[in-house]
Protein: Ring-cleaving dioxygenase
Amino acid sequence: MELKGIHHVSAITANAKDNYRFYSSVLGMRLVKKTVNQDDPSMYHLFYADEQGSPGTDLTFFEIARAGHTYTGNQSISQTSLRVPDDEALAYWLDRFRQFKVNHEGMGEQFGRKVIRFRDHENQRLVLVSDQTNQGVASGIPWTNSAVPQDKAITGLGPVQLTVPDISPTARVLTELLGFRQVGSYPSRNKGMPDVEVFSTGEGGTGAELHVELSSDLQKERPGRGSVHHVALRVDNRAELEKWHEKIRRERLPNSGLVDRYYFQSLYFREPNGILIELATDGPGFATDEETEHLGESLALPPFLEDRREEIESRLEPLDTK
Structure:
């Protein structure tokens, strides 16, 4: 059994319309699924990805209309990366961010790669990372109808950063339980802190890394709009997911058991520092109930919610995504 890389990252937004405007119009990502939180159908769940909604390219958002400010802190998923083809693409994004007045830090470097750290309109902590030197997990397929040129477009998820008060228990879960390899480190941006540790799985590269940083912050992050709820890792199929469930159960980590999300099968658990990790299968995918060319245009509901469509739609603010 080997995890194949990052599957998706799920975050929180307070306003689906503003969220759609930023991620579709400014970042040029494709909305591939407009659905609801299956555990609370009163809120939207929006999925942005590549042209085909490929696993490893999904950045998703739960709309919590009254979500307050995020108070950043420890025990958190503190940074999400988005991949672009090369260093030249980053130069394009610097101009685009200036055009749209996106808060950013200019060009930088992280683990030998060129990056741009930036924030969305809700202070979501994001990074554009260049695939110039990537030799690992392949990127996704740029969206044909994006406002961003295809050779500059976002092609998937890059490294995800975890911030913890003690790296050791998280590192043990990643390496001994999940099969990640520790492949290096780089200096922390927090003065006086040890290097950020880099863990890789599957084919490795930008689409298969978790970066774990130590923080002396005594405050646990208080999530709100702009915070990340969980990170999901790629599992090939349900049979393999069942084996992971047994392995995690033997480890006595709190977990959800297998959950049918219709577009993929899932298993959720918390590692010792309290960070929520999901294991999710690559299929069946987002084209299960919509044609690929029309992904994200209509409200999609899994079969077990379809008989509640009228009730669900009446509680949602209309969101035009055609």
About this structure: The mean pLDDT is 97. The chain has six helices and 16 strands. The first strand starts at residue 6 and ends at 13. The CA atoms of residues 290 and 300 lie 8 Å apart.
